[in-house]
Amino acid sequence: MKFIKKHWGNIAFFLVIGLLIFPPTAIPIKVFITRVFSFSPSEVEAEDRAVLDTYDWQLTNLEGETINFSQSEGKVVVLNLWATWCPPCIAEMPSFQKLYDAYGDRVDFYFVSSEEATKIKKFLQKKKYNFPVYLESQAPPKMLQSKSIPKTYLISKSGMIVMNTEGAADWNSETVHQILDKLLAD
């Protein structure tokens, strides 16, 4: 008992490190911490916004049907690149589900992953998410490529990239709702 009292700080430190390294506890802890520090994403300044030069991008839905991203040209689009193993991706999913519930009939949502369909289906079922998920059939257009995930784009009807966010964010914020409402009204 004397040993524990004397080395309590070191024991606590190694216990925390162990919990963060051990996979069954590491992901939930990282997801929780990421959610706590997730804020509303910000808009790209009007003068810095790029316009998507092509919508040509083959995707496959979880049922194996091929679609082309070009079907969303002229519409407001939320595009999220993510993975089931990514703690920041997992952390922002509840806010995306709420945003999808609110805007899914007026905004085209694309949640794109390069993982196997069976793994994604299990994840969605376990978490009770029903937003549309697609698999990459080919690389995305250059303007939508990213070396990190999560990566999210909010694209206007005219193809302007209004939000270009890397990392987890609170997508069901008042700010995002106001921007979407404005883009839908334009």
Automatic annotation (TrEMBL):
> What is a single Pfam family found in this protein's UniProt entry?
AhpC-TSA
User: Which residues span the membrane?
Assistant: none
- What is the name listed in the Swiss-Prot or TrEMBL entry for this protein? Thiol-disulfide isomerase/thioredoxin
Q: Does the keyword Isomerase apply?
A: yes
Say which domain of life the source belongs to. Bacteria
- Alphabetical UniProt keywords: Isomerase
Please provide, alphabetically and separated by semicolons, the GO molecular function terms listed in this UniProt record. Answer: antioxidant activity; isomerase activity; oxidoreductase activity
Domain Thioredoxin as annotated: residue spans: 48-185
